[in-house]
């Protein structure tokens, strides 16, 4: 989305830091307003749940808690407001970490930062290119992504053995023996200079990250729709896992859409 007319204006309802609540954030070419609100901590302070990194999750849900619409895809419940934030959050990341199931379901390909956000990315001193890191215990990744030099595969030792010579060793993040050790994997990414870590799920990966205390902030767009029963939530898995305590840091509104950024305690 590069046309300013296609991007909605945000009202800032809750603000953390120097930006005052009540501010209007109009669509701007290089998004300095959203860039300030959604910036990761500076390098010297980027020690969150993982040393040398700041781990952010970005998800969307409907008012009744659904993580996807009638087609089982998140694209059917998002819109221009969510996309505006989505693009900025990605532009401010070094690496996007996504579970292999979500990569397949949502049709992930090469990640490209829109031209109008290149200046914002350069000012934040992010990695030159946005990297995609696919998390797969079994080493199963769509073939086109294996050929993409900007894609890393985060897997277990068993998964790496299944991949064999199909992937250069420098594009492998091997963490754990028969399952992925997420803390070790994120630490490895930070060690590669990819300290601004963004995850877009899916729900099982987000649940694992939250349960292991590996998320620093969580951005959630609330889509003004209700899809009814059947859809999953933005977290999935064992209901007996401990809850994560959150604190509201930022709340934006674009008409009926709410975008919240929560700090994870």
Determine the strand fraction and express it as a percent band. Answer: 15-25%
Shape category: globular
Q: Show unreliable segments.
A: none
Main β-sheet, in a few words?
11 strands, mixed
Q: Going across the major beta sheet, what is the strand order?
A: 2-1-10-11-9-3-8-4-5-6-7
Kindly name the structural category.
alpha/beta
Helix content: 10-25%
Q: Radius of gyration in whole Å, from Cα?
A: 18 Å
* Helix and strand pattern: EEHEHEHHEHEHEHEHEEE
Name the descriptors.
globular; 265 residues; 8 helices; alpha/beta; eleven-stranded mixed beta sheet
Description:
The structure is a single chain. The protein has about 260 residues and is α/β, with parallel strands linked by helices. It contains eight helices and eleven strands. It has an eleven-stranded mixed sheet with strand order 2-1-10-11-9-3-8-4-5-6-7, sandwiched between helices. The longest helix has 12 residues, at about 80-90. The two termini are about 35 Å apart. The mean pLDDT is about 90.
Summarize the structure.
The chain has helices at residues 32-38, 80-91, 100-106, 118-123, 143-146, 157-163, 182-191, 203-211, and strands spanning 10-14, 24-25, 54-62, 95-99, 131-136, 151-155, 172-174, 196-199, 217-223, 246-254, 257-264. By secondary structure, the chain is an alpha/beta fold.
Q: How are the secondary structure elements laid out?
A:
Elements: E1 10-14, E2 24-25, H1 32-38, E3 54-62, H2 80-91, E4 95-99, H3 100-106, H4 118-123, E5 131-136, H5 143-146, E6 151-155, H6 157-163, E7 172-174, H7 182-191, E8 196-199, H8 203-211, E9 217-223, E10 246-254, E11 257-264
Parallel strand pairs: 3-8, 3-9, 4-5, 4-8, 5-6, 6-7
Antiparallel strand pairs: 1-2, 1-10, 9-11, 10-11
């Amino acid at each position: 989305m590069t046309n300013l007319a296609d991007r909605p204006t945000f009202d800032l309802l809750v603000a953390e830091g120097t930006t005052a609540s009540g501010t209007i954030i109009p669509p701007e070419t290089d998004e300095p307003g959203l860039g300030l609100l959604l910036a990761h901590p500076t390098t010297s302070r980027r020690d969150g749940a993982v040393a040398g990194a700041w781990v952010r999750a970005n998800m969307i849900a409907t008012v009744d808690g659904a993580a996807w619409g009638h087609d089982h895809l998140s694209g059917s419940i998002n819109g221009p407001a969510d996309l505006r934030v989505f693009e900025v959050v990605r532009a401010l990341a070094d690496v996007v970490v996504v579970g292999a199931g979500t990569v397949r379901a949502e049709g992930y390909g090469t990640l490209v930062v829109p031209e109008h956000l290149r200046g914002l990315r350069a000012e934040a001193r992010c990695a030159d290119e946005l990297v995609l890191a696919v998390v797969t215990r079994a080493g199963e990744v769509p073939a086109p992504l294996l050929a993409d030099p900007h894609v890393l595969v985060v897997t277990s030792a068993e998964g790496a053995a299944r991949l064999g010579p199909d992937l250069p060793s420098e594009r492998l993040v091997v963490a754990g023996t028969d399952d992925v050790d997420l803390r070790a994997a994120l630490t490895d990414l930070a060690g590669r200079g990819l300290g601004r870590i963004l995850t877009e799920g899916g729900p099982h990966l987000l649940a694992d990250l939250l349960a292991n205390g590996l998320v620093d902030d969580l951005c959630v767009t609330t889509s003004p729709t209700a899809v009814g029963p059947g859809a999953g939530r933005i977290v999935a898995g064992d209901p007996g896992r401990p809850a994560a305590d959150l604190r509201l840091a930022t709340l934006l509104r674009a008409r009926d859409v709410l975008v919240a950024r929560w700090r994870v305690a």
